[in-house]
What does this fold into?
Amino acid sequence: MLQFHNTLTGKKEEFKPIKPGLVGMYHCGPTVYNYPHIGNLRPYVFADILRRGCELAGLKVTQVINITDFGHLTDDADAGEDKMTSALKREGKALTLEAMRELADKYTKYYVENIQQMNIRLPDVMPLASEHIKEDVELIKVLDEKGFIYQTSDGLYFDTSKDPDYGKLSPKMVTAQEAESSKSRIGANPEKKNQRDFAVWKFNNAIGFQSKWGQGFPGWHIECSAMSMRYLGETFDIHTGGIDHIPVHHNNEIAQAESATGKPLAHYWLHVAHVIINSEKMSKSLGNFLTLQNLIDQGIEPLTYRYWLLGAHYSTQMNLTIDSLKAAQTGYKKLLKFFSEITEGNEATKLDENFLNKFKEYIFDDLDTPKAIALLWDMTRDNNIDNATKKAMALEFDKVLGLGLGSIVKTELSEIPQNILNLVSQREIARKNKDWKTSDKIRDEISKLGYQLTDTEQGPVVLK
Ligand code: AMP
Ligand code: ZN
It folds into this structure.
């Protein structure tokens, strides 16, 4: 039985898909105004594990991760400037939609590269917010007709007092926020009827899209409501994001979508805890972030970071230190080495039912990756199962963990050095992503270092 902790009910619940055998999931995507930091990658490693976990349960997944290429303000609510507009200014670019497109494409490319390096499978759909203005406008019109919208001098706002269920994802957080904002009116927008009301369309004379209300941008929240419903239907199975999305972004997505359709937007809401550094959330605004390239420069591989993340449950906050990543790398390499040294066995090797059932039990229990990884280690030490079975099991576990455990087959001729094994792993990821150019480049590099790589049905074989 597949179970998830549902933020909406505050409980761990059995997962029941809307349509038997199928699951639709939407993950709030990155705002592409800068390089992603490694904290930003955690929600997508989680989304990938969620997808693979559902597949292990025999479900066919439709996965959507959007790209927020405008509309996300520097403050999650309505204050501040559009992050993309301020990025254009930061980079000395013209304030035009074309320049914004270029900027978005540049950082989307980095994001996609990063998720590929982390062995995160690309989703089925990656919609751009800028290509769904029509859907946003349609949704705003419906809300307007139903009396949920009012206009101020800077935009169109959703009137939360008209929605009796407003804030249902986190009623306590919403009450606390209100108490806070009534204490301090600094920065409050006097034109809003209620400070928790939020913009569905913001006017902007300098740059923006045309609408019957005036030039501007849809709000970040309406973009996600509109894109998720466009690809998954008015009610879908699972919606996820970082925990920072709970109080504002997700409550607002729910309010708009459900007020318009009269139906629940998603049945299960799952949230990922943060990566912190020196007791503070890693974030671009605090300037305390590391990128994946920063890790690589320090000798820490992207898949080590994936392994490190999987060592904690997704709902646990993780404190990042370079030392903890180095320790994770030692463990991860040991695992790679263990499985790469197993030469016996082939695809037909039997699986061990006990280990497989335990693995499923852990993954189906709200994606308990720390227990799944501990089980993998237990298996390496278990004398009751032979090496060929261990290797076959590692490949099976890896369909969910995605650690590249099966990508290396060592030859009997000599010990293959770790740097070559790393290159082979990287090439396998490139091949999985059908990135043939990178794959050929890595093969040439391996060849220059004196090793010959052959692809076989069991995986790549390396010869000195
Ligand atoms: P953004 O690109 O700012 O829209 O953020 C993309 C994702 O990263 C969102 O789901 C955020 O919740 C998440 N996020 C931001 N900072 C962190 C962090 N330090 N740790 C984990 N997730 C984060
Ligand atoms: Zn969203």
Residues 28, 30-31, 39-40, 42-43, 68, 241-242, 244-245, 274-275, 281-283 surround adenosine monophosphate (ligand 1) (CB under 6 Å). Residues 409-414 have pLDDT under 50 and may be disordered. The CA atoms of residues 34 and 277 lie 19 Å apart.
